[in-house]
Amino acid sequence: MKVRADILRTYQTLHTWTGITTSLLLFIGFFAGALVMFAPEIDRWATSPEKHMPAIEAGQYDELLQKVLQAYPKAADNVTLHFDKSLSPVSWYEHGNGRGLALDEVKWHGTLNSDGELVTQLVPVNTLSAMLDMLHRTAGIIGEIDHHQAGIFVLGIAAFAYFIALVSGVIFLLPTLVKRFQSLRRDGERKRFWLDGHNLLGIASLPFHIVIAITVTVFAYHDLFYGGLSQLYGDKPLFPRNEPSKIERNLADLPKVSELVAKVEAHAPGYAVSYIRYGNLTKPIASASVGVVNEQQLMRGALNDYVFINPYTFEIASSSAAHPDQNIWAKLVSTFFSLHFGSYGGDLGRWAYFLMGLAGAGLFYSGNILWLEKRRNKGVKQTRSYKVMGALTVGVSLGALMGIATVFASNKWLTLMTESINQAYLFLYYMSFFSVVVSAFVYGPARTAIYGLKLLALLCVMVPVTSFIAAVIPGTDLWTPNSLEAVLVEVVSSLFGLFFWLLSKHIVNRALQNEPGSIWYLKESTMTSEISARHSV
């Protein structure tokens, strides 16, 4: 396909600058987002099994709920029944509400023992997955704008620019798309390999990236979109509102849990109830939010669909689950959210999104490296922009990885030292992140990458090593994985460690062979001599 040269240059310039200005933010968002695909598994891995209460039989939930409401009247405001056997059968917040990243939330967990007696314990909420989700949505940018995290708006702008980069990149790649799509040229200049790899990652996952770019932009600025629509609707509400009930509620009139489950399952055939969250049970505004799962459907939430129902009358207020009466707009919204969250296809779908998220992070990193390779001058002297972008590329990407790995490696040890584990998570992440960024500017990208990747690999390996220590020294109060999902968290961490260790060895070789002036080149120094000595042995 032939396209005029001036048009190609225009789109190439547009692609380059929209990509280079957003890539590092998107790198953090994509890598953290890949991990968030397994948020429930990560939280269970990060929490001692002693904090979870034993499961009960399906027929015991009515008895459990009544005993909780009698012993803890405050639970009537917000209490959740969990039907997932890996979670405590019932929980409610003593402090907090489970929305966003709250560092001081405390939650009651409860179950019934073998004698049918209520057993409870108060547990601080572990927010490891919530912290990862915060990084995914904000790239770690601190601050608020109008009670919203500032990073959400910044990442929304980055996502819009990212969409422009995708479109412009496809256009200027069209003339050579068929010829170069599956080629990875290792001969000739190094930038050819980076160019081919970058193009392969981008084109192979283009639909995924388009979906993510559009959905992130809409998620970030949906309030503005609604505000614009309100100018058309005037005083008429955008969404239908039911008149608030004035009927006084009595807990003695609360129908059985099994009846509510049957009503929801009849409303949404093929779905299984995963939880029921009761709210304001003693007030006229009593409600129940029911999580329902059907892996064969595109689900509205990250883990499930929702059915909002009156727990006393069983009147359904709204539902995102696929059902015979669902209108086209509800289906479109569910599809929109589901394509971003990857909440379809079960575990296979989650693993696919996990891998595509990692590939997306690789796409942004390779784009920056390609920019640096193309703009490197011959000789030692380089422009300031080249040096700054080189330090930022290594510092920000490696810093984000180091921060996340530090939190995972220290998780179980933190439980022995502090009750404020969530504050410790944030402190360790930002301390590690900024230490690597500063190192990249002070010691240079190459040296920071070599030593940083080795440390990163050790941190990843510390995750299973900690479990090994817990197994051989039981008195440490550490714990070992008690489920396949927890084991997989440690296996994946070990694979990351192996990858980062091999990558550090690759950069060592590259530092010895590269030309002066490259960000990967090391001047004659003690470190260079040590590396050369090792290779000559």
From TrEMBL:
Keywords in alphabetical order: Membrane, Transmembrane, Transmembrane helix
Stretches that traverse the bilayer: 20-39, 152-178, 199-221, 351-371, 391-411, 423-443, 455-474, 486-503
Species per Swiss-Prot/TrEMBL record: Pseudoalteromonas rubra
Transmembrane helix keyword on record: yes
Keyword Isomerase: no
Protein name as catalogued: Peptidase
